[in-house]
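Fig. S4 source data, part A: sequence.
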Amino acid sequence: MEDPGGGMIKYLSLRSHYDALRPELDAAYSRVMQSGVYVGGPEVAAFEDEWAKYCGTTHCVAVGSGMAALQLALESVAGGEKSRSIAIVPTHTHISTWLAVTHAGMMLQPVEPTSGYVVGKIDKLHVDGMTKVILPVHMYGFPALMDEVCEMADNHGLYVISDGAQAHGAKYNGRNVAQFGDATCWSFYPTKNLGGFGEGGAITTDSHDIAKRARALRDVGRIHRFNHYYLGHNFRMDPLQAAFLRVKLEYLDNWNARRARLAQRYIELMSDIEFIELPKINPCSDPVWHVFPILSERRDDLRAYLRRQGVDTSMHYPVACHHSAAYRNAWKSDEFPVAERFSEQELSLPLHPFMGLAEVEKIAYEIRRFE
């Protein structure tokens, strides 16, 4: 492979979204500012309708962040009380998944990923009368094995609350991942496949009860204006983010298709490189490639080398949840070897819809040259 040349390749290019959609985004901004409605209102309601339709669900509850979505969904099925019920969570995820469980008043039961990067059937699943929820994470945009997860939940009488923060548009067995389980929680953080220009999140569900309770909990616990029925939160989405997301939603499928083409090119160019492990995708899954993760025992040296060659990279995530100070002494340091392997070896290569194939080829070329 010849050196394709080129300048610095950024890991992300968030400004590119604004540059590409400037007239539509500016119009959305003006529409909200001229409306005089700056919390909730018709813009948020319109986004909720459009995101629910896209996901193929009955309800969408827009909130202030992905973590808020998880916390509210958990509180909606756990009674909203400090009941000390248990949620089964993957060991390998962003710490927001774990923090949402803790802030919902529940206890964590970590389980290792059983199928590559995600959770599938857990052969030795321990469930007792306190266990209430299983929380699969569609890590990196790769769907969890939802038929297996839902079968486990049905067998044990558990709710399935999924973390879809990295999986906007992902499908499993031909269906949007939001159509499995009791609820799916989304983040619209700016780096996501569907990201705002600030914080945002949502819950999608077919459950009227979950949606009704989550709507109250996000809005200081009120059913009506002065009827604060629950110990709620201020987790509302602002209409500016809703307006921006409505613009970007129109482009999501095309952007995801672009990500898939870039990911396929990475795989074609690097499948024979022995010192890295490429992602393995379940044949039932249609991922959206939020991240292109590789594993290497020489991760840190490889990352430094790529930086010198003008390639910016990231890591998801270099500190495993059970190693974080927030959960210190809760588990043994070596208790979850799969999560530890990812924290020590995972490297995220640049992948976003405004990249060109030449940049993928440059990155693959430099990785092949690494010694």
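Fig. S4 source data, part B ends here. The chain has a mean pLDDT of 94.
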